[in-house]
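Q: How would the structure tokens look for this protein?
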Amino acid sequence: MQPTRSPWVSVDPTPFLSDSGNHYFTSPSGNLYCGILHDGTQLLAGCQALSIVGNLPECDDPMVLSGPMISLVDDGTVGAGCTSEGVYVGEAGKVLGYGERITVGAIRCSSLEDGVTCEDLEKGAKFLASRAAFTQIP
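A: Here is the predicted structure in token form.
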């Protein structure tokens, strides 16, 4: 029996590491900016979009100048909303190609043609960031 091959290519996280100690990447389309951040005690991950996301129309307010963001929250859940900060925009920002995944500690993010997924392998929280929606995956 032939062993099954994973459709994913795991990448070395080192080229994605910024001087601040965080790992940043962009989607191949350039629409998503994502990061795995070290806050001193734990790892957090999230993405921000340049375009409006279907399920967050409130982020399309020119008076607020905010954009959509989704994050793995430290309590093991997922949070989505709007931000005017570049939380997941970093100086490394290398492209994570379709079919590639990056793992830092217990956080794993994967690049798909329909978006980026990030998950906390210890706590079980997982999200999909795409043009259509920023959503928690059960």
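The mean pLDDT is 88.

The first strand starts at residue 9 and ends at 11.

Upvote if useful.
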